[in-house]
Amino acid sequence: MRIRLRKIKEGLIERKEEMDKITIDDIAKALGVSKTTVSRALSGKGRISDSTKKRVISYAREHDYKPNVMARGLAQSRTYNIAVVTPQENSDVNLAFFHRCLVGIVSETEKNGYDVLITVERGNRIDELERIIRNGKADGVILTRTFFEDKRIDYLRQNQVPFVVVGSSQDSDVIHIDNDNSGGSRQMTDTLLKKGVKKPALFGGPKEHMVTTQRLQGFMQAVSDNGMEVDDSLIFMNTQGDDVMPDDIDKVLKAGADCIFCMDDDIADRALKICHEKNISVPDQLKLASFYDAPILSRNIPQISAVTYDEAALGMKAGESLIKIINGEAVHDITVEKFEVMLRGSTF
Questions:
Q1: Domain 81-179+312-335 class?
Q2: CATH architecture of the domain formed by 2-67
Q3: CB 164 within 8 A of CB 326
Q4: Which CATH code fits 181-310?
């Protein structure tokens, strides 16, 4: 009985708060102006004197006016939702990237009155995304991983849905918000080569991911810049499977390589675990470095050297760019060039 009475009381309070909220009509009556004048002052659109605009905004702030998002959305044919598409194939390690990126997206979109819908897609599929668009649930989309011949990009373009991608695409017409993956990989490789690495090996991720190509380019550029030739026999792609990596590490050691450069944190974390299982001393027998950092890498023994990026800044830029596109503003590709090479116990 007490629980039921409390719920009833809470419901009455909520309804009272809703009734207490002032409307555009209330502001217009209080100031002796038309509802159109109030609407123009609050939206910043249309001709209106500065003095009237200041009066309306001051009154609205004083009385804690909040716009009716649903009414505004209906008037503008908007949902005020943004869909963020994340990959289903995420390990506990690389989930950190998507979490920090999402924090940045939300911090930017909420300032503009937008909510975020999160949908998960497996690989290069469009099932869930298609359902969201078909049901009119979002005004725009942020893709957080890109593929060669990306079906989702084709679908969004065909249906004229505003979107940006976090990452890169082979399509120059797509707006990209990306880290300098090639630059970070190049600098990490160059740093360790100059510190004495003689025979580098590379463990890469899925070839269909655009970021894989970027990091491969950075690695190969650094090797070339240091007057060395890339040994193709020491480049292993698609090493994300536990079943192939132990054999690849054996091949690396047999070939005399002294450092494995891992394209991401997940690969580096598993490579270190396998080295421990095989009683391979890191860094004495084999050095390890990652082209992407995650909190777990600094908690390993030894800690793994890695390239750090500002994922929240990446997310904020993605959210900002998408909202501009939705509002009809011009945008351009953005590369967040801030990164840092963190040398830890796995390389010295």
A1: alpha beta
A2: Orthogonal Bundle (1.10)
A3: no
A4: 3.40.50.2300
Count CB-CB contacts under 10 A for residue 153: 22
Sign of CA pseudo-dihedral 185, 188, 193, 198: negative
Q: Are strands 305-309 and 339-342 parallel, antiparallel or unpaired?
A: antiparallel
How confident is the model over 148-179, as pLDDT tens digits? 778 898 899 888 899 999 988 777 789 999 99
Contacts of 26 (CB under 8 A, 6+ apart): none
Tokens standing for 147? 């593929």
| Cα(60)–Cα(40) distance, integer angstroms | 13
Nearest of 19, 29, 17 to residue 59 by alpha carbon: 29
Q: With contact defined as beta carbons under 8 Å apart, do 309 and 284 qualify?
A: no
Burial 184-205 (b: 16+ CB within 10 A, else e): bbbbbbbbbbeeebeebbbbbb
The span from the CA of 151 to the CA of 145, in Å, is 12
User: Which distant-in-sequence residues (6+ apart) come within 8 Å of 315 by Cβ?
Assistant: 100, 101, 102, 103, 104, 105, 106, 107, 108, 166
Can you give the pTM of this predicted structure?
Answer: 0.71
Asked whether the domain spanning 181-310 has the same topology as the one spanning 2-67, the reply is no
Residue type at 55?
R
CA distance 197 to 84: 40
Quick check: 158 and 102 in contact, CB under 8 A?
Answer: no
Query: Is-contact 270 306, C-beta < 8 A?
Result: no
Q: How far apart are CA 79 and CA 71, in angstroms?
A: 10
265 contacts 306 by C-beta, under 8 angstroms: yes
- Model confidence pLDDT, tens digit, residues 246-289: 999 999 999 999 999 999 998 999 999 999 999 999 999 999 99
